[in-house]
Amino acid sequence: MQSVDFKKYADIIVNLEMKNDFYWLIKHFDSETLDHIRSQFDKESGMAFLQKFLHLQDEAIRLQDAGVPAGSPEGLQFAKAYWDMILEFTNGDAAMLPKLMQIGESDEFNQELKQMQTRANVFIEPALGAYFSNLGIDPFQEETT
Fold first, then answer.
1. pLDDT in the model for residue 15
2. HEC readout, 4-71
3. What whole-number distance in Å separates Cα of residue 115 and Cα of residue 88?
4. 1: how many CB neighbours lie within 10 A of its CB?
5. Closest CA to 128 of 35, 42, 60, 44
């Protein structure tokens, strides 16, 4: 018999009560990530963060569709906002990034959201690359010179 993660089920129930359409995401997070989320966000700030994420995802698609170059001032401004959002979620813990990327690549992930993120990534990835290049940093490695 598998063990039951009562904390995870409690999180799902709370999110259902809040009418959070993204309650299904919880099952994809490991215990460590869920503990991090619980310590970083309450109901209100968690919903605000989710709305920020969805807004930036839509903005990336809009910029891509408008043909805005990733390295343009508008693209760099977007990349900064997106990276700031990631830092807010992870609280600066770069070790969380691979976990978050794995969740988005999971075949069990909501396909509609996965398709939207794939569309957004067409702009997000080069914009972040240009942003980090302009700053002369690689957040996944040590500083470059």
1. 46
2. CCHHHHHHHHHHHHCCCCCHHHHHHCCHHHHHHHHHHCCHHHHHHHHHHHHHHHHHHHHHHHCCCCCC
3. 24
4. 3
5. 60
Is the pLDDT at 100 greater than 60, yes or no?
yes
Contacts of 82 (CB under 8 A, 6+ apart): 56, 60, 124, 127, 128
Q: How many residues does the chain have?
A: 145
Residue in the block written with tokens 């600066």: 92
Q: Does the model's pTM come out above 0.90?
A: no
Query: What whole-number distance in Å separates Cα of residue 130 and Cα of residue 124?
Result: 10
Residue with the two structure tokens 């969380």: 96
Position 9 scores a pLDDT of 44
Distance CA 60, CA 67 (A): 11
Angle between helices 96-105 and 31-40 (to 10 degrees): 110
